[in-house]
Write a sequence for this structure.
């Protein structure tokens, strides 16, 4: 199974593509889609949508796993990221890819085994589980890989294949 993980954003969208088979991970690709605030929000939103669409077409994942938003301070940021997240989900839906959403707590639980783990612990486990020499940067990329790992560990993919 190919899982495309996303850490949603507008300035930086982390993504990670993993193959999960027989309880083993194979890293296919990871990186970040970045946009500049020199451009208007609609242009940035289109750029993110277009780049994620190209990546989804290239890797043809079985599932897209994306982190749910958790903001308790800046409402404007939450709305902006929410709109960008919607474009990222739409890119998957338009390709016929099943979308799975995970809270930050679920991601930490699925990667570290502890829902209150700190960012550094999650990044270290991503590095270990994927047998990487170093933690992917920027942090958004490691977070996207963590979301993909969480999906693999969630068992949701088993239900996916039963439906087909």
């Amino acid at each position: 199974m190919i899982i495309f993980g996303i850490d949603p954003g507008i300035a930086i969208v982390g993504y990670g593509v993993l193959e999960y088979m027989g309880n083993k991970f194979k890293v296919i690709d990871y990186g970040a889609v970045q946009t500049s605030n020199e451009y208007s929000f609609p242009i940035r939103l289109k750029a993110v949508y277009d780049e994620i669409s190209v990546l989804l077409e290239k890797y043809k994942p079985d599932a897209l796993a994306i982190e749910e938003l958790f903001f308790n301070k800046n409402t404007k940021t939450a709305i902006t990221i929410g709109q960008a997240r919607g474009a990222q989900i739409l890119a998957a839906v338009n390709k016929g890819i099943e979308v799975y959403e995970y809270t930050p707590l679920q991601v930490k639980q699925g990667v570290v085994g502890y829902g209150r783990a700190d960012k550094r612990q999650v990044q270290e486990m991503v590095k270990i589980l994927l047998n990487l020499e170093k933690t992917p940067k920027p942090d958004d990329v490691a977070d996207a890989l963590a979301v993909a790992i969480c999906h693999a560990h969630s068992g949701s993919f088993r239900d996916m294949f039963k439906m087909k």
In short: The chain has six helices and five strands.
